[in-house]
Amino acid sequence: MPPVRREEAGIMTVFVCRDSLEGILCGVYDAWTSRLGHANVALEVEGRGNLRMFCEYRQVEEGEEKTEKVVRSIRKKAGQEAYEMVFRAALSREEEKADRIYRFLIYALNYKGDITGMLQIPAVYELFHMNRNVGNEAHLLIEFARFSQTREGVLLCTVGPKNDVIILMAPHFADRLSMENWIIYDQGRKKAIVHKAGAGWMVVQTETEEWKNRLEAGSDQKEFEELWKTFHTTIAIKERTNYVCQRGHLPLRFRPYMTEFQ
Description:
Radius of gyration: 23 Å
Structural class: alpha/beta
Order of helices and strands: HEHEEHHHHEEHEEEHHH
Strand order of the largest sheet: 4-5-6-7-8
Number of strands: 8
Distance between the termini: 72 Å
Number of helices: 10
């Protein structure tokens, strides 16, 4: 009796990657080059989702060469817009984002033409949906961001986004506050964008509340916050208060990080 092939046995191979653009792209590389067939492989981000039955799990090994090969292929065959969609989708909080990126690239790398607008294809629509969600949150956070000054004169903005979007906020503030030292701190992910005056910016990972502690220690920031809140209270017209309209323009989840709502 001939041996049963993996495909016939219904065994799925799941490639587990790190929650980052580099990790996901390396996962795409390993899954694609495994030659097990697109229907027989899946991608998962570490620590996301439940273990599947009748699956073989493989840990993705990251490498700069793998990442560069996938990026070159996307830009050459699918175009820069497709790569930017993948980049933003990798910042999403969706548990299935790695596999959705992989399914999108199956079409994007084999279709001769611009596939980014072909929303009738489920894989393209799912990536488009993640892109829109990530982009909308980054846009709102840029509008609602509030900077406070530390005792060293550094401007600090604390946010708590659902998606990992602070890297999308950085170019805007690098342009608007190019001659200032500033930090945008993601409180949930313990990650920060650090910008040096007149220079560039970088991503810093930290496991402490150092940014918040430095703001509160030896600073007159509280006095300025009180002045700001007093200003908003003074100019408000009580008879025209509309909390329903206010929540529509300024969702509740953004308010804990805004000075006037402290």
